[in-house]
């Protein structure tokens, strides 16, 4: 599963892990990606999305129909 949210577009970020002795090594900050299935009344079917938790909250606020309409307008495959 790709570490990218389909709604917010958040991807992994990179930085340094700093030890107690202050040595730096590269690390990766992964977003909290969840696979969620929603029933979309406008399409008449279920849609499975890879979402960050912020993306799930966005769907709760705006509604699944509005978010799916934006995804289709962007050309995202559902």
UniProtKB/TrEMBL annotation:
Gene3D superfamilies: Ribosomal protein L28/L24 (2.30.170.40)
Family matches, as SUPFAM superfamilies: L28p-like
Similarity comment: family membership: Belongs to the bacterial ribosomal protein bL28 family.
Residues annotated as transmembrane: none
UniProt keyword annotations, A-Z: Ribonucleoprotein, Ribosomal protein
Gene Ontology terms: cellular component: ribosome
Entries under InterPro entries matching the protein: Ribosomal_bL28 (IPR026569), Ribosomal_bL28/bL31-like_sf (IPR034704), Ribosomal_bL28_bact-type (IPR001383), Ribosomal_bL28_sf (IPR037147)
Family matches, as NCBIfam families: L28
Any single Pfam family the record assigns to this protein: Ribosomal_L28
Superkingdom as given in the UniProt entry: Bacteria
PANTHER family, per database record: 39S RIBOSOMAL PROTEIN L28, MITOCHONDRIAL, LARGE RIBOSOMAL SUBUNIT PROTEIN BL28M
Entry protein name: Large ribosomal subunit protein bL28
């Amino acid at each position: 599963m790709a570490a990218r949210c389909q709604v917010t577009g958040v991807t992994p970020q990179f930085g340094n892990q700093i030890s107690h002795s202050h040595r730096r090594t590269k690390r990766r900050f992964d977003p909290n990606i969840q696979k969620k299935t929603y029933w979309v009344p406008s399409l008449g079917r279920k849609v499975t999305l890879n979402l960050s938790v912020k993306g799930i909250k966005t769907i709760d606020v705006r509604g699944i129909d509005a978010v799916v309409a934006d995804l289709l307008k962007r050309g995202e495959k559902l």
